[in-house]
């Protein structure tokens, strides 16, 4: 028998979830944003403006994001003087579209929020940002979050997920 003395969970990716239910002013602002096609092979559209966090209609959402992110910093004892949102935009996707895995390398936190009801319940995938965790692994008898390199979450209307 092996006597495991202690387990160490190293290099975790933190994913936090919180709820923000928007008012009609924000929903109208989102629906009225100017959008452009993201490419000829996609139906997806993105807002022309990627600094929506500076608009008045978005300030309740911005406050909610910053307040919750401050709590995450406090809980994990992250040192910070201030938090800043560097970009915020709207994406629209249609059935069959794919949002390819990517990172926001100039940010400590990044997030996604689903403010509008959708018939398409596409899961949200998070990939391990270290990039090597899935390169070589022994066969598993059970999939666990702590040693996975990709995790998906079901669509949750009104919930925001933030990845550190």
- Count of DSSP-assigned helices: 2
Order of helices and strands: EHEEHEEEEE
Rg is 18 Å
User: In which order are the strands of the major sheet placed?
Assistant: 1-8-5
Which band does the percent of strand residues land in? Answer: 15-25%
Distance between the termini: 38 Å
**Proportion of helical residues:** 10-25%
Quote the average pLDDT. 77
Structural class: alpha+beta
Total strands: the figure is 8
Query: What sort of overall outline do the alpha carbons produce when their principal axes are compared?
Result: globular
How many strands, what sense, and barrel or not for the largest sheet? 3 strands, antiparallel
Unreliable runs, pLDDT <50, ≥5 residues? none
Task: Describe the 3D structure.
By secondary structure, this protein is α+β, with helices and mostly antiparallel strands. Helix content is 15%, strand content 18%.
Write the layout of secondary structure elements.
Blueprint: E1 15-19, H1 24-31, E2 35-37, E3 45-47, H2 59-75, E4 91-92, E5 110-113, E6 124-127, E7 150-153, E8 159-163
Antiparallel strand pairs: 1-8, 2-3, 3-4, 5-8, 6-7
Short précis:
The protein has 164 residues and is of the alpha+beta class.
Q: Which characteristics define this entry?
A:
164 residues, alpha+beta, 3-stranded antiparallel beta sheet, 2 helices, 8 strands
């Amino acid at each position: 028998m092996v006597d495991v003395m202690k387990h160490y969970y190293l290099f975790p990716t933190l994913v936090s979830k919180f709820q923000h239910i928007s008012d009609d002013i924000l929903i109208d602002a989102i629906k009225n944003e100017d959008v452009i096609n993201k490419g000829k092979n996609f139906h997806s559209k993105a807002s022309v403006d990627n600094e929506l966090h500076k608009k008045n209609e978005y300030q309740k959402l911005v406050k909610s994001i910053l307040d919750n992110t401050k709590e995450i910093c406090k809980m994990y004892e992250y040192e910070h003087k201030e938090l800043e949102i560097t970009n915020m935009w709207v994406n629209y996707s249609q059935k069959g579209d794919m949002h390819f895995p990517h990172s926001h390398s100039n940010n400590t936190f990044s997030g996604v929020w689903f403010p509008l009801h959708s018939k398409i319940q596409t899961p949200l995938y998070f990939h391990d940002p270290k990039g090597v965790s899935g390169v070589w692994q022994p066969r598993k008898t059970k999939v666990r979050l702590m040693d996975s390199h990709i995790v998906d979450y079901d669509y949750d209307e009104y919930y925001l997920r933030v990845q550190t």
